[in-house]
């Protein structure tokens, strides 16, 4: 499939997909005779994997290393103890998820505070217009 279809399926912009190619995270499996990038299902799956790493704040080098461990491609580096590295990434991901949950709880409390103020403001308006 061409890059436009991949963008549609993943929700990523063309620019982002091209950037991931530039930095070597996802390289199209082929090119058409006209030079268009051609992607396969595994390429799309790899992009979706990257999308899952992004909100956790993984840096490009971390993404590259993690992809080389869980979704190696030809030329991917090999690691002395990939299971240990994977365990470290897993622990980091769990910690980052907990940090996001904590931030979400704070954000939800703030949203609830705003809703409460809207309710108070609305009832005050009603009292002022009926008085």
Automatic annotation (TrEMBL):
UniProt xrefs under PROSITE patterns: HTH_MERR_1, HTH_MERR_2
Keywords annotated in UniProt: DNA-binding
Any single Pfam family the record assigns to this protein: MerR_1
Domain HTH merR-type: 1-69
Domain of life: Bacteria
Gene Ontology molecular function, alphabetical: DNA binding; DNA-binding transcription factor activity
Protein's recorded name: MerR family transcriptional regulator
Organism, as annotated: Saccharopolyspora elongata
């Amino acid at each position: 499939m061409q890059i436009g279809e991949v963008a549609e399926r993943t929700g990523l912009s063309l620019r982002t997909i091209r950037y991931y190619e530039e930095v070597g995270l996802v390289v199209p499996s082929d090119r058409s005779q006209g030079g268009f990038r051609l992607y396969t299902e595994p390429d799309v799956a790899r992009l979706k994997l990257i999308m899952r790493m992004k909100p956790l704040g993984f840096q490009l080098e971390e993404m590259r290393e993690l992809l080389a461990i869980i979704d190696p491609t030809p030329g991917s580096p090999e690691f002395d103890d990939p299971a240990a590295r994977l365990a470290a990434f897993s622990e980091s991901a769990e910690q980052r998820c907990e940090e996001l949950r904590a931030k979400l709880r704070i954000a939800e409390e703030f949203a609830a505070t705003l809703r409460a103020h809207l309710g108070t403001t609305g009832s005050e308006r009603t009292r002022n217009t009926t008085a």
